[in-house]
Amino acid sequence: MSNNSKLKTQNSKLLITGGAGYIGSHLVKQLLQTTNSEIVVLDNLVTGFDKTIQTLQKIRNFKFINQDLKEWDKIEKILDEEKFDTIIHFAASLIVPESMENPAKYYLNNTANTTNLVNCAAKSGVKKFIFSSTAAVYGEPNLKDAINGIDEKFPKNPINPYGQSKLFSEKIIQDISKISNMKYVIFRYFNVAGADKEGIIGQSTKNATHIIKVAAETALGKRDKMYIFGDEYDTPDGTCIRDYIDVDDLASAHIDAIKYLCYNNSNIFNVGYSKGYSVKEVIETMKKVSGNDFKVEIAPKRVGDPALLISDNSKIKKEMNWQPKYDNLELICKKALEWESKL
Q1: Number of domains the chain contains
Q2: pLDDT given at position 161
Q3: How far apart are the first and last CA of the chain?
Q4: Would you say 324 and 246 are in contact if contact means Cβ atoms under 8 Å apart?
Q5: Separation CA 272–CA 311 (nearest Å)
Q6: Is residue 174 part of a domain?
Q7: What are the residue ranges of helices labelled H in the chain?
Q8: Reduced to 3 states, what is the DSSP secondary structure of residue 303?
Q9: Does residue 78 form part of some domain?
Q10: What domain range is 124 assigned to?
C-alpha cells in the first residue's frame, strides 16, 4: 500500500507497547517487513512471549525493552532518552469476566498506566499516539438500533470495568492532546481473531477465552469440550453475536493510522467488518473447517457480555482508506486452526 512506501521515507522511530502480545506482534511483523522505521518493543512478558520477540527479530533486528508500565519513573526515563516519533499502545488487561472480578487491576493497569504513558509521551515530544480501545465502550446498545452496526457516535455506556477502563483512557488521551502537540488515533476494536497468514506468529495465550481460539483448541483435541455461555439472548439463535476481524487486517489499520496522522487531525475509528456472527455460527464454521464435530455444552451466561456488537466501519474505510483483505469467517477460522496445530 502507499502507506508503507511513505513510511520508508520518514525514518520514524516507533514504540510498540505490548508488542510481544497477540495483536501487537502482528503489527510489529508488518512494520518490520514493510517499513524502514526504527522499531522498539516494550513488554513485561506477563501475557506476551519472549519466543515471539525472538521470532520477529529474525525478520529484522529491533530493540526490545522488558519493562512494566507500572514503573512510571522508568517509563518517563525511556521516553526522554529514546525520543519516539510515534507510540502505538497495545499493552493492557482485556478479559471481561476478570474485570468484573478484579476491577482494580483494570483501572490500575489500563487507565492509570495509560495516563502516565500519555503524559510522558506528550512531555517528551511524541507527535503521534495510536491507542487500542474496544467496542466494549458501547456497553449493551439497544438491539433495534445496533442491528445494522454501531458507529462512532453511539452512546458510550460500558457495562464492565474493562470497557470503562478503556473509555477513561480515551478521554485522558483526548484531554492531554489538547494541551500538547501530540495527535492521536483511537481504534475501537471489535472481536479480533485468526493468525498471521504466513504462519510465523499467532495467538499463543494460555487459558484463552477468545471463542475462535477456544474452538480451534477443542477441534484439535486440546480441550475435551467447549462451552456456549448463554443461549437465551435476544438474538436469532439465542447466542451472542459479534463482529470478528482478522488480526492481520487489524494490524494493517495501525500502519494506515501512522500515515493518516501525518496529514489529518486526531480521530476515533471503529475497526471491524460490519457483519456479525453468532457463537453457534462460529462453532459450526470451525467444525466445518476442521472436519471435527467436537463436543459443545451450554453454560450460564457470563456477567458483562452484551448480546450483540457489530461495527459500522464506514468511517475508517472512507477517511483512512482502510481496505481489509481477510473478511471471511472460514478463512479466519482456518488461519487460527493452522496456527493452533503448530503450538
Answers
A1: 1
A2: 95
A3: 31
A4: yes
A5: 6
A6: yes
A7: 2-8, 22-34, 50-57, 72-82, 96-101, 103-106, 113-124, 143-146, 161-178, 211-219, 247-263, 279-290, 314-319, 329-342
A8: coil
A9: yes
A10: 10-193+245-272
* Catalytic site includes residue 162: yes
Half-sphere exposure at residue 276, Cβ-oriented, CA atoms within 13 angstroms: 22
Q: What is d(CA 87, CA 17) in angstroms, rounded to the nearest whole number?
A: 8
| Catalytic site residue from 106, 162, 184, 273 | 162
Phi and psi torsions of 283, nearest 5°: -65, -45
Please give the Cα distance from 64 to 46 (Å, whole number).
Answer: 15
Grid cell of 83 as nine digits: 525520543
Contact 134, 186 (CB under 8 A): no
Q: What is the CATH number of the domain that holds 262?
A: 3.40.50.720
Q: How confident is the model at residue 257 (pLDDT cuts 50, 70, 90)?
A: very high
Chain centroid to Cα 112, Å, comes to: 19
Average pLDDT over residues 306-324: 94
Q: Are 36 and 8 in contact (CB under 8 A)?
A: yes
List, in order, residues 6 or more apart from 273 with CB less than 8 Å away: 190, 243, 244, 245, 311, 313, 324, 327
What's the mean per-residue pLDDT of the chain? 93
Amino acid at 49: F
* CA angle centred on 334, ends 332 and 335, rounded to 5°: 65
Residue 2 scores a pLDDT above 50: no
- Rounded Cα distance between 163 and 208, Å, is 19
Is 325 part of any domain?
no
207 lies in a domain?
no
pLDDT tens across 33-89, in order? 999 999 999 999 999 999 999 999 999 999 999 999 999 999 999 999 999 999 999
H/E element, 106: helix 103-106
